[in-house]
Amino acid sequence: MKPRSTATRELVNLDGLWRFSLDRDRWDLEAAVPASYNDLFVDSAIRDHVGWVWYQRQVRVPRGWSGEDIILRVDAATHQGRIYVDDVLVAEHVGGYTPFEADITAHVSAGQEFRLTIGVNNELTNTTIPPGTITVTQDGRRRQTYLHDFYNYAGLARSVWLYSVPAVHVQDITVVTGLDASTGTVEYAVRTSAPAPVRVRVLDATGTEVAAADGAGGTLRIPDVTPWRPGAAYLYDLLVEVLDGDRVVDSYTEPFGVRTVAVRGTEFLINGEPFYFTGFGKHEDTPVRGKGHDNAYLVHDFQLMDWIGANSFRTSHYPYAEEVMEFADRHGIVVIDETAAVGLNLAVQGGLTGVPPQPTFSPETFGEATRDAHAQAIRELIARDKNHPSVVMWCIANEPSSHEDGAREYFEPLVELTRKLDPTRPVCYAAVIFATHENDRIADLFDVLCINRYYGWYVATGDLATAEMYLEHDLRGWAARHGKPIMMSEYGADTMPGLHAVWDTPWTEEYQQAYLEMNHRVFDRIDAFIGEHVWNFADFQTSHGIHRVDGNKKGVFTRDRRPKAAAHALRARWKPLAGRKPPRDLGRDT
Ligand code: BDP
After folding, report:
1. 224-234 mean pLDDT
2. Residue 238 domain boundaries
3. Average pLDDT of 102-122?
4. Mutation test of ligand 1: which of 146, 149, 338, 533 has the most ligand atoms closer than 8 Å to its C-beta?
């Protein structure tokens, strides 16, 4: 659960400047937390470092905390973290975008200082999510390569917290909501650290109690409920109290929204109404901070999404900071929540380098250990985000090699796991161009067809007429084979701001606009279409490569969030839609 300050819990934020070291011998550098460390220093040895780095600071435990349990929480250590109190290792965690904690009660004392050291490792291998490969150069340097284009930013990119909880406390809360005419139903389950009586209350946005119950699980009913709707968020608070007689020993407040999500035929329903996704695949990426969470960019990005008429986004290609999810909850933005399983695809690499591809799913490449790591990533994502009303679908992988031998064996248990952990939300993956409706082996396991396609960019470059034919043929094939809702989870064209031409010239602002319009014409001719997420919201940093000039330039906004010409065209299309499907012939005129 997200650490919160409540009537029974106290919370100290440990963000700021920490000592920073590559070897734990020299500590003359300081690094900002939260931030990726890579771009902070003018030192390629740090930027290109492969392995552990170390963050350190003194922390004083507040003097009133004796008798409480004391927990240290790291919101994200990318991709592996170790927490030390003085010299004692108290927690270790693999997975760069989900939080972990250490109970440090036995190692610290109220009122006293301790030395907190956090080790962070950025290595990606065949058994990490996302995967990667480490090679050693002829002169002995270790180099990291990986199968995704965005830069492998690392470090403490989110907040670090110290908090207190009473010995008997709430450990987990699950909320599942339903709508029964004008009544909202709230199934809840509370787990406590030891058996104890539990009381729950639902408070509306004015703080008025609208439902209450005793017991660690049950169903609450909210008469005349105000549902959470896209573009019209409404949140209730579930106030959970653990009791000892009449005394409240722990209290925790979980915000939630009452809404339902379902797939019916080729429709995606929110609160029983068809929803049409407009928006983006995003990244957590800004200059200097890398993937460091930044509330100023958070507010500004959501402002820009509102301005352009985006009602949704996908957390491509990893779980985002919890602040982002809470903001989406409060502002009615719909989220497709993705694990960090990007790059389970050796066919792409083969295609790009000319090296004959290895099989993607095999004991030597991505086998059981990879799948175990992937399963763990799914568990941690759902555990963290299950109560967010904004999250309407889980995306368990981006562009896996779903047409290869072994793909079905790899994915079937992961889809089952996802459904077991959360039977309420649809599940999808984003399909790569090599996976066609004819050769893909897994789409039937999922609820929504999310298709990534770059016709007119990587294929039929500069020839939008051919691209339009290819795209329509491709999408119609998927729709016909599966009879499921279909959405475009990525489409985009690299664009240099300020570059113009009167012809269909790739990289110009006109071309990005024409490319998007071509895609929209096709989407609007397909009945099963439920949405469009442009790749990408903003330009973002990538690893070195001949396909990129200072990063991926498919942003509709630049990296510093200025609109390219296409932004205005998207706004003209999306604003009037407001979550409804475009009329069938809209694309013909634009
Ligand atoms: C897709 C990937 C995305 C890339 C994009 C691109 O899903 O992460 O950034 O291509 O090449 O294959 O721009």
Report:
1. 98
2. 170-259
3. 98
4. 149
Same domain, 355 and 405: yes
Does the Cβ of 554 fall within 6 Å of ligand 1?
yes
Name the catalytic one among 254, 284, 322, 399.
399
**CB-based burial label for 452 (10 Å; 0-12, 13-18, 19+):** buried
The residue to which tokens 């990490």 are assigned: 128
Single out the residue in 165, 183, 206 at which a domain terminates: 165
**Ligand 1 site, residue 148, Cβ cutoff 6 A:** yes
Q: Tell me: the pLDDT tens digits for 469-500?
A: 999 999 999 999 999 999 999 999 999 999 99
4 domain residue, yes or no: no
DSSP string over 384-452 = HHTT-TTEEEEEEEES--TTSTTHHHHHHHHHHHHHHH-TTS-EEEEEPTT--TTT-SSGGGSSSEEEE
273 tagged catalytic: no
Kindly write down the DSSP assignment for every residue of 37-48, as one continuous string: STTTSS-HHHHT
* Rounded mean pLDDT, 222-228: 98
pLDDT in tens, 27-46: 999 999 999 999 999 999 99
Q: Quote the ligand 1 centre to 543 CA distance (angstroms).
A: 13
The domain that holds 579 is classified in CATH as 3.20.20.80
Q: Is the pLDDT of residue 352 over 70?
A: no
- Claim to verify: residue 253 and residue 276 sit in the same structural domain: no
**3 domain-assigned:** no
Active site residue 113: no
User: Given the CA of residue 433, which atom of ligand 1 is nearest to it?
Assistant: 12
- Tell me the C-alpha distance between 93 and 298, whole Å: 26
What are the structure tokens assigned to 397, written together?
């992988």
Residue 264 tokens read as: 């019916």
Q: From ligand 1's centre to the CA of 433, what distance in Å? A: 11
pLDDT band for position 339 (50/70/90)?
Answer: very high
Whether residue 51 is found in the same domain as residue 130:
yes
Ligand 1 pocket member 398 (CB < 6 A): yes
Domain boundary (135, 165, 195) is at: 165
Counted domains in the chain: 4
Residue 100 and residue 33 in one domain: yes
Q: Which helix (H) or strand (E) holds 236?
A: strand 236-244
pLDDT at 545: 81
Tell which one of 490, 512, 546, 554 to mutate to probe ligand 1, the residue whose CB is within 8 A of the most ligand atoms. 490
Does ligand 1 have an atom closer than 6 angstroms to the CB of 388? Answer: no
- CATH number of residue 243's parent domain: 2.60.40.10
Distance (angstroms) between ligand 1 centre and the Cα of 475 equals 18
5 in a structural domain: no
In residues, how long is the chain? 590
- Please check whether residues 474 and 532 belong to one and the same domain: yes
Give yes or no: residues 112 and 242 share one domain: no
Same domain as 355, residue 240: no
Which CATH number goes with the domain that contains 99? 2.60.120.260
* Ligand 1 midpoint to CA 398 (Å): 9
Q: Is the pLDDT of residue 116 over 90?
A: yes
Q: Which atom of ligand 1 is nearest to the CA of 458?
A: 11
**Is it the case that residue 588 has pLDDT exceeding 60?**
no
- 441 CB less than 6 Å from ligand 1? no
Judgement on whether residues 147 and 26 belong to the same structural domain of the protein: yes
pLDDT tops 90 at residue 147: yes
What single letter denotes the amino acid at residue 575? K
Question: Residue 491 C-alpha to ligand 1 middle, in angstroms?
Answer: 9
Q: Is-above-0.90 flag for pTM?
A: yes
pLDDT higher than threshold 50 for residue 589: no
Per the CB < 8 A criterion, the answer to whether 540 and 552 are in contact is yes
Ligand 1 pocket, 447 CB below 6 A? no
**Dist. CA 243 → ligand 1 center (Å):** 51
Residue 17 covered by a domain: yes
